[in-house]
Amino acid sequence: MDFVESTVEADGERLACTVVEPSAPARPLTALLMHGAGSGDRHRCLPLARELASAGCRSVVFDFAGHGASSGTLGELSLARRARQARAVLERHAPVGPLLLVGFSMSGQTVADLVRMPELGVRTRVIGLCAPAAYAHEARELPFAAPEFTNTLRTEGSWRSSTAFETFAAFGGRAVLVLPETDGVIPAGVTHALDAALGSQRLASGAPASYARLVLPGADHLLGRWLGERPEECARVAAALLAGTG
User: Fold this and answer.
1) H or E segment and range at residue 124
2) What is the per-residue pLDDT across 222-235, written as a single tens digit (0 to 9) for each?
3) Where is the AB hydrolase-1 domain (predicted)?
4) From the CA atom positions of the chain, what is the Rg in Å?
5) Alpha-helix residue ranges (DSSP H) falling in 20-161
6) Angstrom distance (rounded) from CA 182 to CA 199
7) How far does Cα 20 stand from its chain's mean position?
């Protein structure tokens, strides 16, 4: 496989990207893998991107502004800006064709935000949510460094107003929920609500095979790092994401 480095100008920032091109493309999908918050960067997603590419799926990873090799300040980033930056990366590296969207932690919300965009929602065939988060709708435009952002997150049950739940319940493609055995970051209520939203329509339509829920024994919230240290588990997650896409 080949690794192609590039930068994408987006949302006033310069974003560092890596495209992993499979040696023998065998699937019509392009996968976009998005890291979480804090110290996360695109390198956390590369092990899974390599597994997808080895199975014939072109994969794209990038650093959000304020992370890794991208420009910008983390405190000025917001959920809305994350979605705009991810869309810009897709416009550059996957302007057409079906998509596989994978989000770790905070990027679970970013996956939902992308699927809500009509031009991307119709192209998305598979979503993968790895230890995903969901955030209050009121927090969408707030910079992460703003006290209002922190106060919103600390308000008990504020996550219930997230648009992620209705978006995932209405999503008609394949969904894979990947959970660690122990998650000290994401409230259990968020995980249960996402699980219910992802499974509701599929079970009602009689198509449970379009939803897979994987629990990784011994894993913690930092699934990207954990998968990078366990090739067999990483391959298992990749296989779940690509099931039925050949």
Assistant:
1) strand 124-130
2) 999 999 999 999 99
3) 32-230
4) 17
5) 46-54, 79-93, 107-115, 118-121, 147-154
6) 21
7) 17
What's the pLDDT tens digit per position in 15-50? 999 999 998 878 889 999 999 999 899 999 999 999
| Alpha-carbon distances of 45 from 60, 107, 123, rounded to whole Å | 9, 12, 22
Answer yes or no: is pLDDT of 207 > 70. Answer: no
DSSP labels for 137-206? GGGTTS-TTSHHHHHHHHSTTGGGG-THHHHHHH--SEEEEEEES--SSS-HHHHHHHHHHHHHHHHHTT
Residue type, 127: I
DSSP code for 96? S
What single DSSP character describes residue 63? P
Spatial separation of the C-alpha atoms in residues 173 and 211, rounded to whole Å: 9
The bridge status of strand 13-21 relative to strand 2-10 is antiparallel
Structure tokens at 237: 């997650």
What does pTM read for this prediction?
Answer: 0.96
Q: Is 88 helix (H, G, I), strand (E, B) or coil?
A: helix
Question: To which H or E segment does residue 225 belong?
Answer: helix 223-228
88, burial (CB in 10 Å: exposed 0-12, middle 13-18, buried 19+): middle
Amino acid at 236: R
pLDDT at 201: 58
* 27/89 Cα distance (integer angstroms): 20
Backbone angles phi, psi at 153, to 5 degrees: -65, -30
3-state secondary structure of 56: coil
